[in-house]
Amino acid sequence: MNARTGAAGLDPRTRAEAFLSGACGASRVAIERWERLSGGAIQENIAVDAVVEGGAFAGRQAWVLRTNAPSAVATSHSRADEFAILRAAHAAGVRVPEPLFLCRDGGGPDFFVMRRVPGVAAGHRLSKDDSLVPDRAALARELGANLARLHRVRPPVAALAFLGDAPADHARATIAAYRGDLDRLSAVRGEAWPALEWGLAWCARHALAPRAPCLLHRDYRTGNYLVNEGRLAAVLDWEFAGWGDAREDLGWMLARCWRFARPDREAGGVGSARDFLAGYLEAGGEAVSPEDTRYWQAMAHLRWAVIALQQAERHRSGSQRSLELALTAHIVPELEQEILDLTAGPS
Amino acid sequence: MKVEPSSRDLLEIARAALLTEIAPALPEAQRYGALMAANALAIAGRELAAPDGAAAETARLAALLPGWAPPGDGPEILRQGTARLAARIREGAFDEGPAREALLAHLRETVRARLAVSNPRALARDEGTAR
After folding, report:
1. In this complex, do A334 and B115 lie within 8 Å of one another by their Cβ atoms?
2. Percentage of chain A with pLDDT > 90?
3. Do A268 and A259 touch, CB atoms closer than 8 A?
4. Average pLDDT, chain B
5. Using CB atoms, which residue from A192, A263, A331 is nearest to B83?
6. A187 interfacial to chain B (CB closer than 8 Å)
7. Cβ proximity of A79 and A105 under 8 Å
8. In chain B, is it the N or the C terminus that has fewer CB atoms within a 10 Å radius of its CB?
9. Whether the predicted pLDDT of B64 surpasses 90
10. Is A345 at the interface with chain B, CB within 8 A?
């Protein structure tokens, strides 16, 4: 590499060592393990074991470095924005991997470093295997309490200005957004989805009085948090976070489509709705009625159906050929069935 | 003459080989991919075996859409009727009364046919045989 300034031209691992020794106030940081954990299309997570000499972080450290995948396309949140969201959640007392350092040295894609948290995230294992979750009531309560702490974060927050203005009526705004998404899909596929249109029309007709907006995770479900020794260890995957109605996150966690092996356990297949909502209330969350829950469960299935159609379209269009994306299309009929079950009652 | 065994039989035996011989021999990390592939073969097999419901679905659409007279029952006509129904639902034409009930009956029927291909297990739940 030729005479470029800063860390430019270094390989990613050497660049991280140089950045981290400055960020830690260390005399030296030696990375002993550098292992890709998951290769998404957008983000890449790298497990980093480092030996830090001197400074506040002296000793052995287990971290995760999160960066853009080499083939990254435009994303919902940049790594810098995601770092700010993690910091806000952490400051609010939400269990997250503690965000430590953000690198924007220009020597490559931005990345940030967080503490590595042990645990299991896989939905099928957490819903099935009681040895991973010996006390299901306790885990469900923790999931509720943790969400209540997140929902205490209210706009405006200067560090989260990039999230834009909070919608005055989150439900109506999202219904309009989903209709726009379906129109765009229809335009390229020549298809239409009457059952989803029915669900959206029902949700528009039964819209609840909006609540003051707060910070939402927007993908708070089993599969996106780690459980360690039976307890909630950390909530992951903050890339969809934004302002909105707290009940959206509750409906997402309680939606049938995220219960994995145990559809009878309403809270993400791992616990009961009663325990989950009790934990939410105890930690200061606002009460929800059965009507609220049903409404936002319907919205959850609509949201997942729209996302599933978009994912399948990435495969169908050839932009990202993938077996997993192709199969996602075949989840949609089950979501439609659930939407009909939730909305076909007398009204 | 086509060569036998047929596509349906080939899909079935390929799926059986994946599930009983190949997947168990794979390391954990690749097994999930093999199970997904087996699922894809099962869906394709069910789609080949599914009765062609296009004519019946087009007839149901025509009953729900006064003023729409389908000039036949090919896939393109079914597509047009479905798009027209979706637009009418959005306009609120099926919000209440007998129109609502007729629409829900049609949607149930259509979703059942889609589930029979995509995920018959969810169909069983509908009939109360699973849970």
Report:
1. yes
2. 87
3. yes
4. 92
5. A192
6. no
7. no
8. N
9. yes
10. no
Residues A313, A178 within the same domain:
yes
Tokens of A234: 């950390």
- Classify residue A82: in a domain, yes or no: yes
Q: Each residue of A126-172: pLDDT tens digit? A: 999 999 999 999 999 999 999 999 999 999 999 999 999 999 999 99
Residue A7 in domain:
no
| CA proximity to A117, closest of A29, A35, A47 | A47
Instruction: Enumerate helices (H) and strands (E) in chain B, giving the number of each.
Output: 6, 0
Cβ contacts (< 8 Å) between B114 and chain A: which residues?
332-333, 336
Residues A190 and A271 in one domain: yes
- Return the residue in A337, A339, A342, A343 with the most chain B beta carbons within 10 A, the one to mutate for interface testing: A337
For A51-70, how does the pLDDT look when each residue is reduced to its tens digit (9 = 90+)? 999 999 999 999 999 998 76
A205 contacts in B (CB within 8 Å)? 95
**Is A162 among the domain residues?**
yes
Residues A29 and A149 in one domain: no
- pLDDT band at residue A345 under the 50/70/90 scheme: confident
pLDDT mean over A24-36 = 96
Report the distance separating Cα A191 and Cα A189, nearest Å.
5
**C-alpha angle A206-A208-A212 in degrees, rounded to nearest 5:** 155
- pLDDT for the residue B130: 36
Residue of A nearest to B126 (CA): A337
